[in-house]
């Protein structure tokens, strides 16, 4: 015969377990909402007048060839990234290293000549917007950035790997929009989720 004390103990254990699971579920849901809001805000900013020229080009004396980057403008760009409060330190430093590495390679003539008015002769920001890996958007109104959806691939306490996809798509839209996904990572800095990695800013790929 099971004692009332044993039943009470089991009941307490069940209650505590359920409460813990509900707390975990609530925290995960809050994280997902916060991260989704973060990527939406980031994409809205990247499509606004506040965004900077991601390639601060420097031309030769004849304005015919890009010979490197204006590093004073680049420093200003880094400050603008910090000011948004969207980006983790590691993302900002990664972007910094992309520009510094490309600048060095351009000055050392490690790429083909990059003529003014033409696409870059390296992969970064070449022929599509690196913030969204796109040349166009699925619809103009309402703004698609506010409907971007995320999916968490992996998450621990202060890091997460995710993808974002276009949201609010009509059933008759091209499959390319529906199949699109963009990989990104976030980390918590001072208790706040921030962008740590965007697939189009991958260092190894960007400097090729």
Give an account of the 3D structure.
There is one protein chain. The chain is α+β, with helices and mostly antiparallel strands and 208 residues long. It has one domain (4-206). It contains five helices and seven strands; from the N terminus they run H-E-E-H-H-E-E-E-H-E-E-H. It has helices at residues 4-46, 71-84, 89-107, 175-179, 203-206, and strands spanning 57-59, 65-69, 114-115, 149-155, 159-165, 182-189, 192-198. The strands form two sheets. Strands 4-5-6-7 form a four-stranded antiparallel β-sheet. A three-stranded antiparallel β-sheet has the order 1-2-3.
Secondary structure blueprint with pairings:
Layout: H1 4-46, E1 57-59, E2 65-69, H2 71-84, H3 89-107, E3 114-115, E4 149-155, E5 159-165, H4 175-179, E6 182-189, E7 192-198, H5 203-206
Antiparallel strand pairs: 1-2, 2-3, 4-5, 5-6, 6-7
